[in-house]
């Protein structure tokens, strides 16, 4: 699953070459690119895939899988900006934020009242 900002012929071909069943949003307004060239055919195929019942269902699951962690990290962890500059430092900063988020989820799952009741 990917947002519309990631739709391109190159990305679609990359996924196809690696046998990835990609669902890449083609844009909010669903306006196709120019009808000339190979990008239009790629757009049309992805749009048809997303509009099919299985495509709608698959892309709808993204809301409950991919989006909540970002909202939780921003709101519950109050992480709004990176502390360091530079791509490698930002990656490290993000890795620490994600580690803390996942450890807290694991802690809550292992040491909740429900976990003790079923043990």
Give the tags:
single chain, 119 residues, mainly alpha, elongated
What would a concise description of this structure say?
With 119 residues, this protein is mostly helical. The protein has six helices and no strands.
Architecture overview:
The protein has 119 residues and is an all-alpha fold. The protein folds into 2 domains: 4-65, no CATH class; 67-118, no CATH class. The protein is 63% helix and 0% strand. The chain contains 6 helices and no strands. The protein has helices spanning 9-17, 38-51, 53-65, 67-75, 87-110, 113-118. The longest helix has 24 residues, at 87-110. The protein is elongated, with a radius of gyration of 19 Å. The model has no long low-confidence stretch (mean pLDDT 82).
Task: Please specify the SSE layout and strand pairing.
Layout: H1 9-17, H2 38-51, H3 53-65, H4 67-75, H5 87-110, H6 113-118
Strand content: under 5%
Our count of domains comes out at: 2
Between the first and last Cα atoms, what is the distance in angstroms? 37 Å
Arithmetic mean of pLDDT? 82
Q: What is the C-alpha radius of gyration, as a whole number of Å?
A: 19 Å
What are the secondary-structure elements, in order, as H or E? HHHHHH
- Which structural class fits the helix and strand makeup? mainly alpha
Tertiary shape: elongated
Kindly state the percentage of residues in helix.
55-70%
- How many β-strand stretches? 0
Low-confidence segments, ≥5 residues, pLDDT <50?
A: none
Main beta sheet: none
Number of helices: 6
